[in-house]
Write a sequence for this structure.
RNA sequence: UCCUGAGUAGCUCAAUGGUAGAGCAUCCGGCUGUUAACCGGAGGGUUGUAGGUUCGAGUCCUACCUCAGGAGCCA
């Protein structure tokens, strides 16, 4: 058919001076008598087109002049560097086909003016087309790709763990019960951790990457009921290895985003200097030291308690990069944590608290590898022993010190994008009062 | 679950207890360099729901519903 190359808007610079075709949607239209400026988006970017009445068929000019927002169309014309246009390039319209015209009786609901959160999330399926959401999704993709590249190039094997699980990983958290399987109660996973320990004993270094479900009545800017988590696990590894890997991972991801997603960060008006500061080494402090800092800053925390959201923010204020806090009281951590041989009251766990008040993005540590200790813990936590029989096998057949952690994807996205609410980090957020669309 | 706040045009918001209004969006008209374009005109309302107080309620009172922010819990 046509000899004209179909291009994507991000590649416009490569086709300067050439006649090209762009297939997309009408983002916005500015018009002035005998000249029109349709803004066309194609998923890769937005480009301003120029249509002059005198140089094109009358019918086409009138069609475009009255085209409605988000109508789909294919435009053809010559690309030209143009300082006055956003993006630096402009397309001189020669011809166009309207694929579907949005009827004026049912106009596109998201106008170029401001809207409230409730409305935008009711129309989330359309909101994804807007500049800001588009930028967040591209950064999210970059982060996920970077996470996988980091593990893949450091000897880890991706082994995904089941979504349906028969028991809790962490006894305290509320689980989503699935009423389908006949023999027993089954729940949606809240972590792949226990299964990771099995695959790590088989493959040495593994990670799983998938959705996670928490039936908590949380209603804050840091929580989703369905979120994505990456969890590496390493055989023959200790708490110190966890810190090194977590630090390496975060630095690698930040670097990738800075290298490949500048435009998106600018669209989001992210303060890039804050991201550039995220470099190794991260400060490493103990829980004891963290409690001291918090008390000095006026927190009501007492030794033995877990940090609240405000505690995490107070702590983050002290540093220009993420801070690693280790050796929490064993009582606030899950049953499977190894304890410090010199101080049995503290667990060999570490949390990475993000800078700028974005809270805990990484949590993990060294796992208990003695059969006797684990059996006692399972009794202490009133967990059903039969559900953990396979897990205990890992301590019967060649148990070794091992360690791992989990990193929340959405919190990382919110942090790197500088968003004030986690719901913006995922295409279709699932929250306490939000299950549609 | 608890605490606080908010529900008025498709959207974002005004309106001392006294005739419900503006901007954007939509439609019509004008404009050859617009940048959330601008200018003129038109249509668009059971003020979240149900009661109550009052001569009179968008406004005051009660209950409920929905949403937002926060707490607890967590990544």
């Amino acid at each position: 058919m046509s000899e004209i190359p179909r291009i994507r808007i991000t590649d416009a610079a490569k086709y300067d001076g050439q006649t090209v075709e762009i297939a997309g949607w009408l983002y916005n239209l500015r018009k002035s008598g005998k000249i029109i400026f349709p803004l066309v988006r194609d998923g890769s970017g937005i480009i301003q087109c120029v249509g002059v009445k005198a140089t094109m068929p009358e019918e086409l000019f009138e069609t475009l002049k009255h085209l409605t927002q988000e109508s789909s169309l294919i435009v053809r014309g010559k690309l030209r560097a143009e300082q006055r246009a956003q993006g630096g390039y402009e397309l001189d319209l020669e011809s166009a086909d309207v694929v579907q015209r949005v009827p004026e009786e049912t106009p596109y609901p998201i106008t170029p003016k401001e809207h409230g959160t409730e409305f935008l999330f009711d129309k989330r399926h359309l909101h994804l087309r807007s500049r800001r959401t588009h930028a967040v999704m591209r950064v999210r993709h970059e982060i996920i790709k970077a996470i996988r590249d980091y593990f893949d190039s450091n000897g880890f094997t991706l082994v995904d763990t089941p979504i349906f699980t028969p028991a809790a990983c962490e006894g305290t958290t509320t689980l989503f019960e699935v009423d389908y399987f006949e023999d027993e109660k089954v729940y949606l996973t809240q972590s792949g951790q226990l299964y990771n320990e099995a695959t790590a004993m088989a493959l040495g270094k593994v990670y799983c990457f998938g959705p996670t479900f928490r039936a908590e009545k949380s209603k804050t800017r840091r929580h989703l009921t369905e979120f994505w988590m990456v969890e590496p696990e390493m055989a023959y590894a200790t708490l110190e290895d966890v810190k090194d890997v977590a630090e390496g991972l975060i630095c690698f991801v930040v670097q990738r985003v800075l290298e490949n997603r500048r435009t998106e960060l600018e669209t989001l008006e992210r303060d890039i200097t804050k991201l550039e500061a995220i470099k190794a080494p991260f400060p490493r402090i103990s829980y004891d030291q963290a409690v001291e800092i918090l008390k000095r800053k006026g927190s009501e925390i007492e030794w033995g308690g877990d940090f609240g959201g405000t505690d995490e923010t107070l702590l983050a204020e002290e540093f220009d990069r993420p801070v690693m806090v280790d050796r929490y009281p064993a009582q606030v951590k899950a049953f499977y944590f190894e304890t410090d041989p010199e101080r049995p009251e503290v667990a060999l766990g570490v949390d990475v608290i993000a800078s700028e008040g974005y809270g805990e993005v990484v949590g993990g540590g060294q796992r208990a590898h003695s059969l006797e200790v684990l059996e006692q813990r399972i009794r202490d936590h009133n967990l059903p022993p039969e559900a953990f029989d396979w897990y205990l096998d890992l301590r019967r057949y060649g148990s070794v010190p091992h360690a791992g952690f989990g990193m929340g994807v959405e919190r990382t996205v919110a942090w790197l994008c500088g968003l004030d609410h986690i719901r913006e980090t995922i295409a279709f957020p699932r929250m306490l009062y939000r299950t549609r669309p």
Notes: The longest helix of chain A spans residues 131-152. Residues 386 and 392 of chain A are 10 Å apart (CA to CA).
